[in-house]
Amino acid sequence: MSEINDSVTGSEILREAEPNPKQKRESDSETPISIAKKAKTEDDRNPDVGLGEVGPEEDKPVVREIGFEIEADGAEDKGSRHTMEDAWVVLLDAGLDSPGKLRCAHFAIYDGHGGRLAADYVQKHLHANVLSAGLPRELLDIKVAKRAILDGFRKTDESLVQQSMSGGWQDGATAVCVWILGKTVFVANVGDAKAVVARSSTSDVLHNDSDGIGPLKAIVLTREHKAIYLQERARIQKAGGTVTSNGRLQGRLEVSRAFGDRQFKKVGVIATPDIHSFDLTEREHFIILGCDGLWGVFGPGDAVDFVKKLLKEGLPVSTVSRRLVKEAVRERHCKDNCTAIVVVFRRK
């Protein structure tokens, strides 16, 4: 696992998925957050120039982009926990107060630990901070976009730490975020939440009734940040922290990067994300975002196969996301909070 420094490059790092065992964070997380932001787009712009249009059904979020449509929805379940600490965002028209010619969509999962407050705060502020940091809205510039995401993460974490000091709380949250600008996907993460893209080896197109689609590979788009990993451990030790024999920072926190966790900031916890980008082609069919609860019981390939099967049955993405979470909790016995977002790309 490579550490991201302050220099943002345009390089893409994608890995073919390998199953990962279930990972846990600090064990005293017991407070709920389950707020989803969903935006249904209204587009009065000219579709001939490749901008968005609204799908015909009000309860079926759809964004049209040059050559493809985006459908997305999420689902959550607190599992066997007493409370729900995950927060998630689905924004199909994510321009907010920064409209532009470049279509912007945003999806994110924030997995809280130690309480709900950090996840709640980041859910409300991160995307707005990324936009204000200069996320391109007219012409795409990869380096500018990555710098805006990096700066947005930094600003959000700094203000969150100040807020937690004022309020006397110490919650933290991992994050996996996706921004789609035009046809370019940006993925940013801190901690152990994960994003996976389903990619075919050919240019087969996924439709509701596509029975002939070939096998899909599950490509992991994120890197886990855990104290036990060599480069993360070295960075923590340089900051004065320790990683105990159980692989936890100061014997308590398994992740090495997160929003908040102000009690661990001086010993190496940072909110600097890994940021990767790639262009959508006919080979990319859908992306699954999930907290570590989902990936603890689903291997990336298993999740892709599960979602692919439901999409081939013609089910709407809202149903697909709910069934994915239900399968994780009811059938595969996920004990943790479980949240998933499914983002589907449909060619016109």
Automatic annotation (TrEMBL):
Annotated region Disordered: the residues are: 1-60
> What are the PPM-type phosphatase domain coordinates in residue numbering?
71-345
**Ranges of Basic and acidic residues composition bias in the record:** 13-28
InterPro entries for this protein: PP2C, PPM-type-like_dom_sf, PPM-type_phosphatase-like_dom
GO molecular function (one): protein serine/threonine phosphatase activity
- One Pfam family cited in the UniProt record for this chain: PP2C
- The annotated regions of Polar residues compositional bias extend over 1-10
PANTHER family recorded for this chain?
INTEGRIN-LINKED KINASE-ASSOCIATED SERINE_THREONINE PHOSPHATASE 2C, PROTEIN PHOSPHATASE 2C
**Annotated protein name in UniProt:** PPM-type phosphatase domain-containing protein
